[in-house]
Amino acid sequence: MMPSKLQLLAVLAFAVAMLLIENQIQKLEESRARLERTIARHQLAEVEQRHSEDLGRESPPLAEKDDMVIIYNRVPKTASTSFTNIAYDLCGKNRFHVLHINTTKNNPVMSIQDQVRFVWNVTSWREMKPGFYHGHVAYLDFSKYGVQGKPMYINVVRDPIERLVSYYYFLRFGDNYRPGLRRRKQGDKKTFDECVSSGGSDCAPEKLWLQIPFFCGHHSECWDAGSRWALEQAKYNLVNEYLLVGVTEELEDFIRILEAALPRFFKGATELYRTGKKSHLRKTSEKKPPSKETIATLQQSDIWKMENEFYEFALEQFQFVRAHAVREKDGELYVLAQSFFYEKIYPKVS
Hints:
The longest helix is centred in the first third of the chain and has 53 residues, at 2-54. Strand 6 (326-329) and strand 7 (332-335) form a beta hairpin. The protein has helices at 2-54, 80-94, 112-124, 160-173, 192-197, 211-216, 228-241, 251-261, 263-266, 269-275, 292-298, 302-323, and strands at 69-72, 97-100, 131-134, 152-157, 242-247, 326-329, 332-335. The protein is built from twelve helices and seven strands. By secondary structure, the protein is an alpha/beta fold. The termini are far apart. Helix 8 (251-261) runs antiparallel to helix 10. It has a five-stranded parallel beta sheet with strand order 2-3-1-4-5.
């Protein structure tokens, strides 16, 4: 009996030690996040100070290719980390800046004062141009803030049920990006199927309502789950305000088209995605696919029908863009060469 008691004590001691280590890792992560926010505030204050000092001096205009800003208002659990890491890997070689928009508690809706600050920063922060901004923030219409120039928006969407399932398990088991970080729902072993069958809040149809409001923006009705107006506004913004919106399931094609359209930022991105160590870096742990019964239950909700309608709309638009940008040959996609030219140019140059 004595060895058994000793083994039990050893197991308990090990478990306590692991909990203490996880707690310390969590505290270190929180301290790191606070430090990063403090550094960012100081850097921003310095930029604002320099900008104030330069108001009376006329700065030379930036070259057109450098006076560019891309905003990737990334939807959670759509392979956004995999794509963003490509930008980080390319920024040194292609000479552009990458900035993470870190909002408090990952709140995608900014206060009106933060909206004005953000728009002003993005448009006037010359030192950060060309710039690639990314973060979990809802779409902002820059034209309503009285500034010159608008950024180019890009984004990626995912099948709404697959996105929710991935997020559900991410909150409980994390991923292989930061495996030691303690997650909010860690310890909850209930599967997604069990959650749906028991009517749990973390898998309720309302949790599907995310991609529509991210594209709809900062209007109150955007965040009213099931709003037909929000769906139509999201579609309008996707078509009129986004340069390109891809889908998680066809991420490589999205990257290839971006490289063809914006080589200033994405030259070499396709090859890096295929061969780089950071491709598909973030994978949710312990994820179990939902049953047919669970999927059928969610698909009965009006919210799923709207989110799925938006996803299908985005997919159709992306496939249309792809059909006019690339061609397939021997199982490989090739970017089409320039297919327009100028002629009959008058008056003639002597």
